Amino acid sequence: MAVSITGLRNALATNLGTISGLRTAAEIPDNPSPPIAVVTMDGIDYDQAFKQGLTIYNFTVLVIVGRAAEREAQRRLDTYSQTDGIKSGVESDRSLGGLAYDTRVVNLTTIGSLQLNDQTYLVAEFAVAVYA
Amino acid sequence: MAKYVVAGTTVEFNGSDVSANVARCEIVINASEVDTTDFGSNGWTEVVGGLKSGSVSLDFHSDFGSGAISNLLEDLVGTIGTVTVIAANGTAASATTPQYTAEVLVNSFTPIAGAVGDLATFSVTFPTTGEVSYATA
Hints:
The complex is a heterodimer of chains A (about 130) and B (about 140).
Chain A: H1 5-16, E1 23-25, E2 36-45, E3 56-67, H2 71-81, H3 83-90, E4 102-116, E5 119-131
Parallel strand pairs in A: 1-2
Antiparallel strand pairs in A: 2-3, 3-5, 4-5
Chain B: E1 10-13, E2 16-17, E3 22-35, E4 47-61, H1 69-74, E5 80-86, E6 99-105, E7 121-127, E8 133-135
Antiparallel strand pairs in B: 1-2, 1-5, 3-4, 4-7, 5-6, 6-8
């Protein structure tokens, strides 16, 4: 089925919004106020069934947990990485409000740092597959 | 249109368009070999075509939605169904998008399949019964 990618992105952000204390954003803000989750497109696998019956949309949820030097940021990262963290939040409505057949957080791909405005932030990237 | 990439094959089962739940489709038509080798064959085997047979293989994406493929096949095991396939990404029979129609015996159905993390799929290979017809209009 044909779906709006913006709609999927917004629906993922809505699901992430169910996580207590976590902000969400459609784009990386200039001055992020952690903890914040940003939904970004990673790639699309077209033609998984005849007549565009299934497309796999691969998103990355970038979670900026705080400044890298903050001990609190490390603890937040631990919490968000648990199965009841980002994974449960994103999968709280796996149909994304009816836009998708299914949604799955596949893995936590990267833990690293992000430079923004002379600040170094601790970030984690979660790979999300949306079947629509 | 000549060569083509498979993307939009039309697959109907008992009149229902199930294309959006199909990831692979294959129709095979065979003729058995009847041996006619004799003393005059000069040391070579000789054969002629015998009875024809066929099969339809489909890879499905499982779907238990109302009227969807998993529910559609659930009650049909052991019965004869009709599979219609329009090749070359066509939506109607034409010279460049021929339509094949086959009566098949639904001799198996795998309602549950798949490992953790995988898309739920199942594959079937149904033998045909009677002629596999071919239409270009």
